[in-house]
Specification:
By secondary structure, this protein is an all-alpha fold. 58% of the residues lie in helices and 0% in strands. The longest helix has 17 residues, at 79-95.
């Protein structure tokens, strides 16, 4: 969406995302593909660059529809990735070490593996018992 909005004047900054969001609001895979073609066709007269981006990234854009529909809302969002990055930033600021030091890298790897294994994000309930995340006590 940010790439599409970079090619659109401010006055149409509400219309273009609304047209793109209709792709994700469909009920099944065949309608998702048809809506992608329709959205690109609708945007083509005014915004050729945006329509070209939709055409080029079409397969990647609708890849989520290959999975069962209950999983769609989790797949088309980048919120989980943004949450992990924010948590790593917050923890490294507390520890005051850079992300390249072994200490913070070890915590990042353990945190990611713990959260993916348990299906939830790291919290006080499932974090290491030591005061600092990567300490060897």
């Amino acid at each position: 969406m940010p790439n599409a909005l970079a090619k659109v004047p401010w006055a149409q900054s509400q219309m273009v995302p609304a047209a793109i969001r209709t792709i994700f609001a469909q009920a099944d895979r065949s309608h998702v593909g048809a809506q992608l073609v329709e959205a690109a066709g609708t945007l083509r007269p005014q915004f050729r660059d945006v329509a070209a981006k939709l055409d080029d990234a079409g397969e990647d854009l609708i890849a989520f529809s290959a999975f069962p529909s209950p999983h769609w809302t989790k797949l088309w969002s980048t919120n989980p990735l943004e949450r992990v990055n924010a948590e790593i930033k917050r923890r490294t600021n507390v520890v005051r070490s850079s992300p390249t030091t072994p200490r913070s890298c070890g915590w990042s790897a353990r945190s990611w593996s713990n959260s993916t294994a348990s299906g939830r994000w790291p919290s006080a309930a499932n974090s290491p018992k030591s005061r600092w995340p990567c300490s060897r006590s």
